[in-house]
Amino acid sequence: MADRRQVLRIGALAAGVPTVLGATGATAEAAPHRPGRSLVIGHRGASGYRPEHTLASYELAARMGADYMEPDLVATKDHVLVARHEPEIGGTTDVGSRPEFASRRRTVVLDGVAVTGWFTHDFTLAELKTLRAVERIPRVRRHNTLYNGLFEVPTFEEVLALRERLSRELDRAIGVYPETKHPTYFRGLGLDLETPLVRALRRHRLDRPGAKVFVQSFEARNLRQLREDYGLRAPSVFLTSATGGPFGDHTTYAEYLTPAGLRRLARYVDGVGPDKNQVIPRAADDTLGTPTRLVADAHAAGLKVMPYTFRAENQFLPADYRIGTEPDGYGRALDEQVAFLRTGIDGLFTDQPDVGVLARKLRTGDRVPA
Ligand code: G3P
Ligand code: CA
Prior knowledge:
CATH topology of the largest domain: TIM Barrel
Mean pLDDT: 92
Order of helices and strands: HEHEEEEEHHEEHHEHEHHEHEHEH
CATH class of the largest domain: Alpha Beta
Strand content: 5-15%
Structural class: alpha/beta
Strand order of the largest sheet: 7-2-1-13
Bound molecules: SN-glycerol-3-phosphate, calcium ion
CATH architecture of the largest domain: Alpha-Beta Barrel
Low-confidence stretches: 1-25
Number of domains: 2
CATH superfamily of the largest domain: Phosphatidylinositol (PI) phosphodiesterase
């Protein structure tokens, strides 16, 4: 591991790439925030309409008008990055019905929590490629089960190739928003996510300030390492949860989001990706409450704010944005997103990118097709 990091650091120096804080758009002095068009990020692709993290899901997101496609990244046994939300694949592939892999089921301790199932790091890429994706929440998204068994688990390389093909075809640069999932855990297995991530971005000429890339992580230390040790130059975003803090970190997410915490973050990241409830919390009766100061404070620190995750189904919406009582039915998702866009956020993650694109049109007064 140390060797690989050393090689990357040397490679960056040889290329004239600074490896200290401020190597990218993130600088020690907060850059003034420049508001622009809010970005629509296809969360796990267009996961409201296709099984998540499949090429079909990413392609649909781009065709619906998403600015960015969002692959979560984990590693295989042979150290290849693949797109899955977590290393355990029992919930999103058909591995549980494959007798040849029955003996791979086991329990691991993942960030301090015992998890039982099948894990990407116990499979070579060739083995993983024999599996097929299935819908994670079939009772909520019954339509998506139509596609169970059709699509492979994609590699990050395949996602980047798809991005290039669709950018040419659609005549606009589609962005990619990769997330390192459980980076400390994978590092402990000798399968660091950072080395293949940075290599892939460089191979596709995407590791540069201004590239249509945001590298994201729930671990601030991981983003700092990417800057300092791996010489990452592409923009990055620190993800925060409404409670707790990063694994193995004494600083809570709430502390990272104070004005002082945000100024410190701005030394090595370009934005924050909060839980949407950190931008507009729910009131006691589960209706949409009053916006916090987060957007203003982050902008004052020179950071973008792109909250997650906007979903159209009633069960994910504030009480006053639901329609009827069917939890899986669609509610007033457009109105919810417009309310959030009014806070000045710079983008949003959504499972239904068409809803995000339409909400942005409604917010900005763009013409909505009749
Ligand atoms: O990366 C933004 C959002 O995707 C974070 O939540 O758990 O869906 O990866 P998660
Ligand atoms: Ca994610």
